[in-house]
Amino acid sequence: MSATDRPVLLRNGLVLTMDDAHTVLPRADVLVIGDRIAEVGADLPAPEGALEIDATGGIVMPGMVDTHRHMWQTAMRGYGADWTLTQYFVWYYLESGKLFRPEDVYAGNLLAAIEAVDAGVTTTVDWSHGLQTPDHADAAVDALEAVPGRFVLAYGNIQQGPWEWATSPEFRDFHRRRVDGGRLAGFQMAFDVTGDPTFPEKAAFEVARDLGVAVTTHAGVWGATNDDGIRLMHEHGFMTPSTVYVHAATLTHDSYNRIAATGGSVSVSTESEQSAGQGYPPTWQLRHHDIPVSLSMDTSVWWSGDLFSAMRTTLGADRSREHLEAHAKQDTITHCHLRAEQVVEWATRGGARALGMDSSIGALTPGRQADIVLLKNDASPVMFPILHPYGHVAFQAQRGDVHTVLVGGRVVKRDGRLVGVDLAAARARVEATVAHLRDTLGEEAWQRGMNPDIPETKILENPYQYTEWDAGSAQWKH
Question: How far, in whole angstroms, is CA 65 from its chain's centroid?
Fold first, then answer.
């Protein structure tokens, strides 16, 4: 009997259940039978043949949920480290994104899926807007199905308007072949609403409604999507509780009110919003409007592929905003509104709620799917002492501390090493994609794309122009 067929018992860990009461168990066990959590408590008896994992000194928490990741771009990891949103749009939307073949989408998705599971992200939304043809879409799903994680495909195509690709027979055929009865954890349609008063996106929303699938959309992105898009969606009845608004960083109170009133949620990608320029990470606004939040990392072409960074930067951005606004009024913040506990919930239960999966994942309670992460690293001085569990997850832990990962009861990472994953094969596919893009673009264009011009920095005039220090007089000489 293989380890994946045996009951699994995580022993003696600090358990963050993320249940409705946010119960924390300082020393407890989590028993998994089949694909479900059977029991959570202290000193549980081990079923015969159970795989026992010592969680002593570690934190046991639900698998994390990323609600917005452009997985197809992962083969270009780090290439756009110095980009703004402008460079991203030019490179992917207008120029080089058209060069991606189905096998390149497969390579990116495969690597992204592996790195997600490795970092304890057990459910990931593949915001897959590079699906230029049905072959690209099939390749995306093939890669997701090759990795033992839970994946939601958000189907999109930035090379066509959504009113074109969503209404095509090929899209309907793909949905029938790969989504109905397939192995995906879920399916969304991914497209943006520009605010064009003719509302051409209406046709795509109608397809989503007909198929009964959710829409995920980049909303409130500076210079790209705005309040007019939200208004058009609302006036035509296309804002629903299942709609996920990504970024939502530059909207007015009116738009936030419409999102709140229709029950939608926002996927915040703080590293992205801070660096690329979509707008200031909006958690401070979402808090005021009582809008549910989930977290996402956006794309590895820029940023880290884990939610530890997302939690950390989200706390930092929200608190920075709060302090800055207080200082502008000559005031001082003495108590932060956003707490570590909240961002840990956003990274787990918040994502589950956004995807309509709250009854099955996102918490460690009996009956839920056994998506579980053990953070433990006996070789790291950072993993002790654990005094504030939520703060430790948000500020101290990182991908290297992910000791064990279960997805649906299956052990996919143990003792810090992935189980049943062929990294060498993934590397070969990614290297082939990089070689294809580099050769097709040419070395000069490749380097230019990776290294955009640096704007000139103007040095302000300094009235204190000293030139020489006189040690005898202990004064500067002019």
Answer: 7
Provide the residue type at 53 as one letter: I
Phi, psi for 23 (deg, rounded to 5): -65, 130
Q: What contacts 272, CB < 8 A, 6 or more positions away?
A: 247, 278, 297, 298, 299, 302, 303
**204 contacts 163 by C-beta, under 8 angstroms:** yes
Please identify which residue in the block is written with the tokens 């590895």.
300
d(Cα 18, Cα 371) in Å, to the nearest integer? 13
Band of the pLDDT at 1, cuts 50, 70, 90?
very low
Residue type, 45: P
Give the Cα-Cα-Cα angle 151, 157, 160 (nearest 5 degrees): 165
With residues binned 3-state (H G I as helix, E B as strand, rest as coil), the percentages for the chain, rounded to 5, are: 40, 20, 40
Two structure tokens written together for 98: 């058209």
d(CA 435, CA 439): 6
End-to-end CA distance of the chain: 84
- Cβ count within 10 A of residue 367: 9
CA 105/CA 144 separation, integer angstroms: 11
Express each pLDDT in 189-224 by its tens digit. Answer: 999 999 999 999 999 999 999 999 999 999 999 999
* Predicted pLDDT of residue 478: 66
**pLDDT on residue 237:** 98
Q: Which of 361, 355, 343 is nearest to 270 (CA)?
A: 343
Q: Report the alpha-carbon distance of residue 295 to residue 64 in Å, rounded.
A: 9
Q: Is 439 exposed, middle or buried (0-12, 13-18, 19+ CB in 10 A)?
A: exposed
Query: Which of 357, 370, 375, 376 lies closest to 406, judged by CA?
Result: 370
Specify the 3-state DSSP secondary structure of 60.
strand
